Amino acid sequence: MGNPRLSLEWEDEAYVLSARSHGETGAIVELLTEARGKVAAHVAGAASRRMKPFLQPGARVIVRYRAKVEGQLGSATLEPMGEGPSSLFDDRLALAGLSAAAAVAAAALPEREAHPGAFHALEALIRVLEIPEIWPAVYVRYEAGLLQELGFGLDLSKCAATGAFDDLVYVSPRTGRAVSREAGKPYHDKLLPLPPFMLSSQGGLAEGDVKAGLDITGHFLEQFVFGPLNRPLPPARLWLLDRLTEAGRL
């Protein structure tokens, strides 16, 4: 079958990460596929009223891609799958979460490199965006999954200092490893608080936990992903933090 990433013509399912106008009626669209990773393509007629709804971040589409030369920008036609983000149009906070997730993936993932974990993490987040009580915590897990997929996963399995498995309440901002309450006590002001839900789906959510989770994933995205590229966190990610704060959801 050959390497799917090297094919000059293919069809696959994808999530739209971004779309920017190109020419009078077209757009350059960034797409996330399971097998080919992040792919950019020119989509003709993208400015039409018919196409605009499924060029929104998070829309799921069928992509038919074609390129003349490997490595150059190809062209694509898109066909929508389901109602996409339109189901969230009355929930501005959930839309902010979806926009942030797409923006972080678009900025962090390399071109044409398969990262199926990132695809499935975005898929899992989109499935819960209509459940306001849980999606902010799932968003934190989404960013932690992106870090894992890019080789910078957090090690929350045991205390970095003692090897203990219990009472893990901090994360080292240098290494991304968990630290127990006792071991971290002398340095607690230099460590990042670790919310229980990042250790287990049974951990429950308390006030401040989502903020603590976003602080952890944001710190390591800056340190390991965006810092080396001389880029800040995407504006949509900062916007999400502001919206969650205004809504009292942190």
Walk me through what this model shows:
This protein is of the alpha+beta class. The chain has two domains: 4-86, OB fold (Dihydrolipoamide Acetyltransferase, E2P) (Beta Barrel); 92-156 and 194-246, no CATH class. It contains six helices and eight strands. The strands form two sheets. A five-stranded mixed β-barrel has the order 1-2-3-5-4. Strands 7-6-8 form a three-stranded antiparallel sheet. A hairpin with a 7-residue loop joins β4 (60-66) and β5 (74-80). The longest helix has 18 residues, at 209-226. The chain starts with 8 loop residues before the first strand and ends with a helix.
List keywords for this structure.
single chain; 250 residues; alpha+beta; OB fold (Dihydrolipoamide Acetyltransferase, E2P); 5-stranded mixed β-barrel; 32% helix
What would you say about this model in short?
With about 250 residues, this protein is α+β, with helices and mostly antiparallel strands.
Topology, please?
Layout: E1 9-22, E2 26-33, E3 37-43, E4 60-66, E5 74-80, H1 92-108, H2 116-128, H3 135-149, E6 168-171, E7 178-180, H4 181-184, E8 192-193, H5 209-226, H6 235-246
Parallel strand pairs: 3-5
Antiparallel strand pairs: 1-2, 1-4, 2-3, 4-5, 6-7, 6-8
